[in-house]
Amino acid sequence: MTSGKLLVTGAWIDRARLESLERLGLRLRRPSHVLTEEELEHELKGAVAYLHGGEERATAAALLSAKETLKVVAFVGVGYESFVDVAAADDLDIVVTSTPGAARDSVATFTVAQIINTNWQIVQQLGNRYPDWDNPDELPHELSARKIGIVGMGTIGTRIAEILRQAFGAKVGYYSRTRKEILEKELDLEYQPLRELVAWSDILVVMVPGNEKTKYMIDAGILAEARKGTILINTARPSVVDPEALYTSMEEGRISLAVFDGFYPKDSEAAARLLEDFGGRLLVTGHIASHTREAMDRMVNQAVRSIENVLNGLTDPYAVGARSDRLPEARESSP
Amino acid sequence: MTSGKLLVTGAWIDRARLESLERLGLRLRRPSHVLTEEELEHELKGAVAYLHGGEERATAAALLSAKETLKVVAFVGVGYESFVDVAAADDLDIVVTSTPGAARDSVATFTVAQIINTNWQIVQQLGNRYPDWDNPDELPHELSARKIGIVGMGTIGTRIAEILRQAFGAKVGYYSRTRKEILEKELDLEYQPLRELVAWSDILVVMVPGNEKTKYMIDAGILAEARKGTILINTARPSVVDPEALYTSMEEGRISLAVFDGFYPKDSEAAARLLEDFGGRLLVTGHIASHTREAMDRMVNQAVRSIENVLNGLTDPYAVGARSDRLPEARESSP
How many CB pairs under 8 A join A and B? Predict the structure, then answer.
């Protein structure tokens, strides 16, 4: 039996899913609003476990306030780097976990729909009761005649490649930090260096984790390789694509249409210019790809299991930071 | 060698694809505009073959004017019933052919995207930079947790079922005039009578040919079986769904969203009311699902081969009407 406080943030989390932790002897504490750093410091005092499903920032100071008791911060989702100071947690011997893979099918399915939407220009065609019959050159290609480049071949990238190859017969190329030779053979994928992949692709799909290393990975130099009319699908974090570079490439017509699920910060001037000047060529949704009930349930269940593992003294497969025993590539399953 | 006139309508058809017919000895005649009935009568005089890729109506009178010479009318597409008087052609011993199957992958891919679009409400979410985090009950389900009912299990319906089962793991039920027991086992599909299927489905996909028999097949009685919030995807011909019945079911909330690729005639009052009162819940495109370059090429090639077959005295597998040697079900590959 474990005693002590369990802090759970995120009002959307169903209490029934926390029962196994309560049965362990943990006392549930659920604040009802987004905590400030000061409030979080207060709430964390005496906590042994912290299930992070909210919008608060677990800073070094907040973690420090719980250093005597806190064993584990289980982040619900994959973008933990913006919400938890993992380096500080490592120093304090607090395990941080995340929930990679839980939203794989949701994000892959959403991304495939956006690929088809942009290929047929379905959104732009809505409300046109009669197509333009006189312009056969404007007709879309079948997916089997499209070259689709995937940047990042983690859990979600792999799922997207599977669907595109197996269900639609598209030609799929990819770039990844490490080659996946078994997968290449299995799915008949073509590995290409990033610049070559961008030049090759009719449709470019970005699916790498959002972090400091991938920030503006798709920059002006990379986008300059794109042929005219290339479609860009970014259902990873927006920060992977440099918005200034995207502006230029949309102005030049290299990028004809761009998809984002989640967009740049509201105060970003580059983002505002993109929306103002190319709004009709941008399909922006608010980070909804991963937000299905099943994916969210899976994330919470996975976070709960991680807490159980850590409190039971087991190694958790989803630990991040210094405690991660996995290759970075294996965690490449953002957003 | 065959001599005589080959009438080709549809300005979009690439001349290179007609070369094999010219090599047969046929003289190509390509009017540049949509022909009236009178003009068609004139153009058909002396023609031995007629490749119908345009918008003109091959009426009994027009066909009669060519009865001495005309052997074959090859319709490019599947909705020939609105464009060629097949009964009159049968009486005159003129073979009529169509091009089923050619647009299978295009229509299936487009339909799958619209299923995902409506499931996530992607179109409605466009421009919302931040999702509504407080409403977990509003979250979409993963496709693997959705029951998708397909009405019509012809070439395209089968392809849609394959993609939904194999790529996305959705639960798929179907209704068809004849059961497909092998397919049921292969894909783990559930056959259900039409009313039961409608009541069972979260998402109902209509994929039957548009003709007199299927007109308003989805009527008030059928739609009354739908549970609240059912999504209706009609990428077959609009006439398969009774617009008055659809209006009532959208008013009642049984149908929450409806997709059409091609809509009712512009002078339809029921259609105007649907657009006016439920425009935001209707995703209407102008019959674009089948219009990819590859599908159009395939259709023209198939029509050319049908003409060759008939002129060479062979039985054509794509003959329709009295000359069809196929079961009606096998041709169920609209739109």
Answer: 157
